[in-house]
């Protein structure tokens, strides 16, 4: 009997060991690229014979800061992202409300039409965007790049907000009006607090999309509207791996902040929830 | 009569509310797509005239087949691998082992950070002077592995970037699963493997499918990853960009024709994918 | 040694600081239907999961058919189980659901078909083989669950609140059906429920649990008539609890005073004069008479504080003497109004002392 018990235990332990190994490999798979980028960005004279760089330096960051014009580019990136988020949210609030709470004939079909820009790879219509923007002199303007981003951000925002609005409990609104609240008060005291998390997650996701966006940016940017991803891409071409690594580290910081927010505020599943119904 | 008017007013209001969304759709997606289609039918460099020459040239070029095959190979194999990775991973995470929150966050990383950062890190890590080769040469004493700028390497990078869609959807489905169903199966005599094979996998198949569609879509349209890590392997997206970036004057018509082909391929493949895989669960 | 089909010996299970099962000792006889009864969170489901093997006890052993199965995985324990939420396999037809245990056991196709059809006949679900669970009503789903549990003739049938997701009427029907099935197949069954009426109606024996402990095991009659603790008396049926001081002890009668009233209760060993004593009486054992009715032993003057009409009976709250409040239920024939003076008779043999808490 004891032998049997030991045997069962050993199988359980073997499985546990397997699981731990799997998880460790997985973490290594995801994090190792970041770790090595980080080390690259602070390492000097590191030619890959050693596991760790022999000397540490912040020179590459200085280079990135000065030659790579990181401050100006960060400003561009944030302005563009802010504009894209604002436009997407402004578009998404009325349209999301209509989809979520009003009687829209052929809702399913219209919704998939709206989501089409997320199903078709951006590169497939990026050329068209570029040609139109050239003609309208929108290329190399913050507004123009942000507008291009809105093409992919807005559908997402509409989807997230329409499901948020749909989730509003009719009875709570009725209860508010029964309690004597007028439309304005109902809006500020009841609806707004209830939809705020939804709007917040929509903002987070559109921000991330715009911040990370490269395809449409590459076809609409100019000297005045380089964004961080574009700059990093150009740096890859320039071939200074250390400086590029430093830029990549700078580029990733806001993303980590967003990740933290997501983990705190929003269920991670919502991040892909945006694609449901596709 | 007044009822009719009120209903009329309500539908106008709905229409007004929908209009920003559709204006955005028409102006930022539909119109550019149409411009792309029209451009693809113009002779290269000219603003008038209609021709199919761009399509004919693209589709008859010897390299075209390779480009399309490469695009599909990358997308399909990374999608399949994402399933292979996600199923055990989510089965483990569902049990909420120690540190599972950390691993959940880890799953999110590839789709939250800019693709470029990941691509760069992967290039360095798997490069000839990266840690992997250091491990291979110094610990295992084997010859260096060539991973960067190869098709298997690209598939690996695609997997890194796009598996979270599959993993997150599978995890959500798995966590929505009623545990007592599995308990019922084990009481009925099924061992862990049989429970997985006969009960859990069939039940989460729709979730895996939905997630893998997302992974496929992202991988098929992937641009920044192959742009940075592809080297001489250029899937459709990069090939399109090359038409604009590497030619002077830029070959807009050719690029547009390729864009249209890509959009059609994507939509066709997606609808087949959905139809074929949705049938067994109807 | 008694021939138990299932035996829990000293089973203890903790979740962190919470002791879900505290040294449970319980034996279930062959062919017996035993109910585990208790409020939610009392540990009855934990005990059941120790039997199925979904939980491993921290201490103690579990025996099935004389064999120590504590370390045997669930799928080798040869059990049948019916779940509260039915737990049918949604992607399989009724036939495939019932066939599942046989498929796992690699029986040949023809034999399987025979056994499945037998099981479906048993629960009167022939003709539904090709249906999917979602096309069935709750009652039908639970029947299929029963067929799936019984199809391979397991040693033991476990039922985990099988009726609580069904509506009241169906619940009563299914109750008899399950009782009948278990007797007919002569199978050992454990039935977990929090519904005392259900437990009394269908069990051979009832095991009552509270806060992780087994508090009383006995036949339904035993449990109802002779609860050994205040908890059991309170949990099973309605009870009026009356606490007083013993003034005299004779052979067959104990006299105690309660708020100035003199109550006579049946004799009991180990009771001394001057100690306090708790007795209980079921509200429908109290008899009410109009104010002028003749007095006698255990007849008290009272006033109706409140009454609630319940259809087949009337529920009164009555104050006896100065401040002893009791609840009385009578059939609807006799009616007293609120504020009316009445006389209440608490038959001596119906006033039962409770020892434990």
Could you explain how this protein is built, in words?
Chain A has 278 residues and is mostly helical. In chain A, 78% of the residues lie in helices and 1% in strands. In chain A, strands 1-2 form a two-stranded antiparallel ribbon. The longest helix of chain A is centred in the N-terminal third of the chain and has 41 residues, at 2-42. Mean pLDDT of chain A is 83; it is low at 273-278. Chain B has 2 domains: 1-40; 53-281, MetI-like fold, CATH 1.10.3720. Chain B has 12 helices and no strands. In chain B, helix 9 (192-221) packs antiparallel against helix 12 (252-278). The model of chain B has no long low-confidence stretch (mean pLDDT 88). With 357 residues, chain C is of the alpha+beta class. Helices cover 24% and strands 37% of the residues of chain C. In chain C, a hairpin with a 3-residue loop joins strand 16 (299-309) and strand 17. The longest helix of chain C is centred in the middle third of the chain and has 18 residues, at 168-185. Chains in contact: A-B, A-C, B-C. At the A-B interface, helix 1, helix 3, helix 4, helix 5 and helix 6 of A face helix 1, helix 3, helix 4, helix 5 and helix 6 of B.
Strand order of the largest sheet of chain A: 1-2
Specify which chain pair forms the largest interface.
A-B, 87 and 91 residues
| SS field, number of helical segments of chain A | 12
Distance between the ends of chain A = 55 Å
What fraction strand of chain A? under 5%
Q: Return the CATH topology of the largest domain in chain B.
A: MetI-like fold
Q: Kindly provide the radius of gyration of chain B, computed on alpha-carbon positions and rounded to a whole number of angstroms.
A: 24 Å
Strand content of chain B: under 5%
Q: Describe the global form of chain B.
A: flat
Count up the domains of chain B.
2
Low-confidence segments of chain B, given as residue ranges, are: none
Average the pLDDT over all residues of chain A and give the rounded result.
Answer: 83
Parts with pLDDT < 50 across at least 5 consecutive residues of chain A:
273-278
CATH superfamily of the largest domain in chain A: MetI-like
Report helical residue fraction of chain A: over 70%
CATH class of the largest domain in chain A: Mainly Alpha
Q: How many helices of chain B does DSSP assign?
A: 12
Series of H and E elements of chain A: HEEHHHHHHHHHHH
Question: Which class of the largest domain in chain B in CATH terms?
Answer: Mainly Alpha
Quote the average pLDDT of chain B.
88
Span between N and C termini of chain B?
45 Å
């Amino acid at each position: 009997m004891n032998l049997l018990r030991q045997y069962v235990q050993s199988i359980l332990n073997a499985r546990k060991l397997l699981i731990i190994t799997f998880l460790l490999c997985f973490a290594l798979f995801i994090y190792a690229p970041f770790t090595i980028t980080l080390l690259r960005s602070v390492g000097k004279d590191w030619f890959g014979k050693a596991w760790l760089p022999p000397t540490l330096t912040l020179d590459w960051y200085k280079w990135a800061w000065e030659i790579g014009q990181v401050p100006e580019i960060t400003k561009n990136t944030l302005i563009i992202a802010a504009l894209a988020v604002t436009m997407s949210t402004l578009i998404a609030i009325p349209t999301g409300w209509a989809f979520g709470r009003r009687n829209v004939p052929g809702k399913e079909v219209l919704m998939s039409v709206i989501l089409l820009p997320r199903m078709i790879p951006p590169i497939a219509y990026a050329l068209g965007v570029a040609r139109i923007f050239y003609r309208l002199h929108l290329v190399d303007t913050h507004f123009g790049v942000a507008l291009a981003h809105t093409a992919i951000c807005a559908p997402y925002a509409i989807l997230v907000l329409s499901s948020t609005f749909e989730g509003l409990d009719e009875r709570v609104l009725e209860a508010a009006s029964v309690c004597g609240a007028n439309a304005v008060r109902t809006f500020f005291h009841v609806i707004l607090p209830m939809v705020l998390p939804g709007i917040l997650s929509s903002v987070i996701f559109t921000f991330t999309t715009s911040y990370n966006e490269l395809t449409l940016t590459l076809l609409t940017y100019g000297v005045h509207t380089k964004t961080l991803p574009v700059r990093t891409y150009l740096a890859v071409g320039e071939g200074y791996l250390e400086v590029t690594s430093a830029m990549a580290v700078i580029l990733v910081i806001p993303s980590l902040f967003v990740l933290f927010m997501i983990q705190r505020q929003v269920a991670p599943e919502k991040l892909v929830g945006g694609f449901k119904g596709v | 009569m007044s009822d009719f008017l009120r209903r009329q007013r309500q539908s106008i209001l709905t229409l007004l509310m929908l209009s920003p969304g559709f204006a955005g759709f028409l102006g930022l997606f539909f119109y550019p797509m149409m411009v792309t289609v029209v451009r693809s039918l113009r002779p290269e460099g000219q603003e008038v005239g209609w021709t199919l020459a761009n399509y004919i040239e693209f589709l008859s070029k010897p390299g075209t087949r390779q480009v399309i095959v490469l695009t599909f190979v990358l997308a399909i194999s990374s999608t399949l691998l994402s399933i292979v990775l996600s199923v055990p991973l989510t089965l483990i995470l569902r049990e909420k082992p120690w540190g599972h929150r950390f691993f959940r966050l880890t799953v999110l990383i590839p789709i939250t950070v800019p693709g470029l950062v990941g691509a760069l890190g992967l290039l360095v890590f798997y490069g000839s002077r990266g840690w992997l080769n250091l491990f291979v040469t110094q610990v295992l004493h084997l010859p260096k592995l060539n991973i960067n700028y190869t098709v298997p390497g690209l598939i690996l990078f695609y997997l890194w970037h796009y598996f979270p869609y599959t993993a997150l959807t599978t995890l959500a489905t798995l966590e929505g699963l009623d545990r007592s169903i599995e308990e019922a199966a084990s009481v009925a005599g099924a061992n862990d493997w049989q429970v997985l094979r006969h009960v859990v996998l069939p039940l989460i198949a729709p979730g895996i499918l939905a997630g893998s569609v997302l992974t496929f879509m992202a991988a098929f349209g992937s641009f920044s990853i192959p742009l940075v890590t592809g080297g001489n392997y250029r899937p459709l997206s990069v090939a399109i960009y090359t038409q604009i970036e590497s030619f002077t004057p830029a070959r807009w018509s050719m690029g547009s024709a390729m864009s249209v082909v890509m959009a059609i391929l994507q939509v066709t493949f997606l609808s087949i994918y959905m139809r074929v895989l949705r049938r067994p669960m109807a | 040694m008694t021939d138990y089909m299932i035996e829990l010996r000293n089973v203890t299970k903790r979740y962190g600081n919470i002791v879900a099962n505290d040294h449970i000792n319980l034996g279930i006889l062959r062919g017996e239907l035993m109910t585990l009864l208790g409020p939610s969170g009392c540990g009855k489901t934990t005990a059941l999961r120790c039997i199925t093997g979904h939980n491993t006890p921290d201490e103690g052993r579990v025996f099935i058919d004389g064999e120590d199965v504590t370390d045997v995985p669930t799928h080798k324990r040869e059990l049948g189980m019916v779940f509260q939420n039915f737990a049918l396999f949604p992607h399989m037809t009724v036939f495939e659901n019932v066939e599942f245990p046989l498929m796992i056991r690699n029986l040949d196709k023809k034999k399987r078909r025979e056994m499945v059809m037998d099981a479906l006949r048993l629960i009167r679900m022939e003709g539904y083989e090709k249906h999917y669970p979602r096309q069935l009503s709750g009652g039908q789903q639970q029947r299929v669950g029963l067929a799936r549990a019984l199809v391979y003739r397991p040693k033991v049938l476990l039922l985990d609140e099988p009726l609580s997701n069904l509506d009241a009427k169906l619940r009563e029907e299914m109750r008899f059906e399950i009782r009948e099935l278990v007797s007919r197949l002569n199978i050992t069954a454990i039935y977990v429920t929090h519904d005392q009426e259900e437990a009394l109606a269908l069990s051979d024996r009832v095991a009552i649990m509270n806060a992780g402990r087994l508090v009383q095991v006995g036949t339904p009659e035993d449990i109802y008539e002779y609860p050994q603790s205040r908890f059991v008396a309170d949990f099973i049926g309605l009870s009026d609890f009356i606490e007083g001081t013993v003034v005299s002890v004779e052979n067959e009668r104990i006299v105690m005073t309660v708020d100035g009233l003199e109550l006579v209760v049946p004799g009991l060993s180990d009771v001394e004069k001057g100690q306090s004593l708790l007795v209980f009486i079921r509200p429908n054992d109290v008899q009410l008479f109009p104010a002028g009715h003749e007095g006698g032993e255990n007849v008290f003057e009272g006033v109706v504080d409140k009454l609630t009409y319940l259809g087949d009976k009337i529920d009164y709250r009555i104050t006896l003497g100065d401040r002893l409040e009791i609840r009385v239920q009578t059939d609807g024939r006799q009616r007293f109004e609120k504020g009316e003076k009445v006389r209440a008779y608490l038959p001596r043999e119906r006033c039962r002392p409770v020892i434990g808490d």
